[in-house]
Specification:
Strand content: 35-45%
Shape: globular
Helix content: 10-25%
Structural class: alpha+beta
Number of strands: 33
Radius of gyration: 24 Å
Oligomer: single chain
Number of helices: 5
């Protein structure tokens, strides 16, 4: 009898512990570099990708940044302002760069990331395995994400994280190869570039989550009842479950375009995008934070990428905070948490493509519309996407989406502050879950459905350079002349 009782108790504890330890990776840290037009955030130089060091940073490649704790770390730690630091270094090129139309892909291997708080205490360090960068040659956007697990190996956050569960995704805008917008490669060699950037780190919890703890408690009671032959009433079970789930299961909540512009305006905006001045930069950051991790902020389904309605009251699909930067920063106050964002109509265009033999994959897209609303549900900015790219891996749960041609801003109260009415759009993905698991999946040349958590970057510039104005005027004049001739 004692043997049976011991086995029952052991099985109950083992099953509950297993179920409570299989929490999926989710976004736990977001970093927003304090970028400027004179000092960029990241660079690729002679085969190595890294952050560009700020004066006074703890490490030579450290960038001052704001840190936002998400997921299961959110209840435990307070967010940090602009005096935290993130250093990414030592990512070495692995193989030749490949060009696919207006997209360039480059694989990397190795590297490290270190995160410090505002007291220069190491919060987290990790070794990066393999990663891939995709970027556009037309617009100033690029994405870097891991294709093998990131291994956490130090810092005060380490006891909270599964050491082998890491992911890193970095979204870049205002990418410059010398004075040119976008990436360039020559005979398979990626040219040096610099960019403004933002990113997120994902991980799985090493400790049982609240729901896992509740389940553990219930199974423990059942095992005890079997052990003692005592009947347990439904009221007792309910009381225990309520008590065990008192702490809000925050690990379930990750803080998080239907028309294609054509004609002379589209061509003009593409020329503008290719001749942007060096003053272009991030103007808006939005951390989507409304939907549970089990649902995600975005979904790709039936060939369309779109945001999911998180059930909150704002008019947009996803509740978000908004940070205004660059030339918008002195004009508008940041919005803490009650703004909202929507994206729809981003449609797959063509089959899934591979960088080499994989596991890095990408899906070209066409069309789409985004809308950003303030806390009063007033439209701040609407933009029409033209062509884009979903990038990721078959072996990791990070990736992103970026525009590969200029986005045309069409409406909203911010429009008068954006003289060009054009810019770039980029998103980082974390916590990707596809039909095949925690990564993107290729279903016979078609990208399988997936969900993900997201972070948005929008960039533009205050005024066009004289050369840009001349190009725009020439195109418009050409259109008028053409019209008069037809008359």
């Amino acid at each position: 009898m004692l043997h049976l009782r011991f086995v029952s108790l052991f099985l109950a504890l083992s099953v509950s512990t297993f179920l409570s330890s299989v929490a999926l990776g989710e976004t736990v840290l977001r970093f927003d570099f304090a970028s400027s037009s004179t000092l960029r955030d990241v660079s690729f130089d002679t085969g190595v990708f890294s952050t560009i060091g700020d004066a006074g940073a703890t490490l030579g490649t450290g960038q001052f940044t704001a840190l936002q704790f998400d997921g299961f770390l959110d209840p435990e730690f307070a967010d940090i302002g602009v005096n935290a630091e993130v250093s990414i270094s030592g990512l070495q090129v692995n193989g030749m760069a490949q060009t696919f139309g207006t997209v360039i892909g480059q694989e990397f291997t190795g590297g490290t990331i270190s995160v410090f708080d505002d007291m220069q205490t190491l919060l987290l360090s990790a070794s990066l395995g393999d990663s891939t960068l995709f970027g556009s040659t037309v617009s100033g956007t690029a994405q870097l994400s891991n294709t093998s697990p990131v291994t956490f190996d130090g810092g005060t956050l380490l006891p909270f994280l599964d050491p082998n569960s890491g992911g890193l995704s970095v979204s870049m805008v205002n990418v410059r190869t010398g004075s040119l917008v976008g990436l360039r490669e020559n005979a398979g060699v990626l040219n040096n570039f610099s960019a403004d950037a933002s990113g997120q780190i994902e991980a799985a919890a090493v400790i049982p989550e609240p729901l896992g703890g509740a389940f553990l408690g219930l199974l423990g009671i059942v095992a005890f009842a079997f052990h003692s032959r005592r009947r347990i009433s439904f009221r007792e079970l309910s009381a225990c479950a309520t008590h065990a789930a008192d702490r809000r299961p925050r690990f379930l909540f990750a803080k998080l375009a239907r028309r294609v512009s054509t004609g002379t305006l589209t061509i003009a905006v593409m020329v503008i995008g290719m001749t942007q001045s060096a003053d272009a930069g991030v103007i808006i950051r939005a951390n989507l934070n409304g939907a549970p991790t089990s649902v995600g902020d975005l979904r790709f389904e039936n060939g369309e990428l779109f945001t999911l309605d998180d059930g909150h009251t704002p008019i947009g699909d996803q509740r978000t905070d908004i940070e205004f930067e660059s030339f918008l920063s002195p004009l508008f106050a940041n919005i803490a948490d009650l703004a909202s964002f929507s994206l729809d109509g981003v449609m797959a265009d063509g089959p899934v493509q591979y960088l080499g033999t994989g596991p890095s994959v990408f899906q070209e897209t066409v069309g789409g519309t985004f809308r950003l609303y303030d806390s009063a549900d007033s439209l701040l900015l609407e933009g029409e996407l033209q062509t884009g790219l979903i990038a990721g891996s078959l072996t990791a749960s990070t990736g992103g989406f970026m525009s590969t041609s200029p986005v045309i801003f069409t409406a909203g109260s911010l429009l008068p502050s954006l003289p060009l009415h054009a810019g770039d759009f980029s998103m980082t993905f974390s916590g990707i879950q596809s039909d095949a698991g925690a990564a993107l999946s290729d279903a016979g040349g078609v990208l399988s459905g997936f969900r993900a958590d997201g972070q948005v970057l929008i960039d533009s510039q205050p005024v066009p350079e004289p050369g840009t104005l001349a190009a725009f005027a020439t195109l418009c004049l050409g259109g008028l002349v053409s019209r008069r001739i037809r008359l």
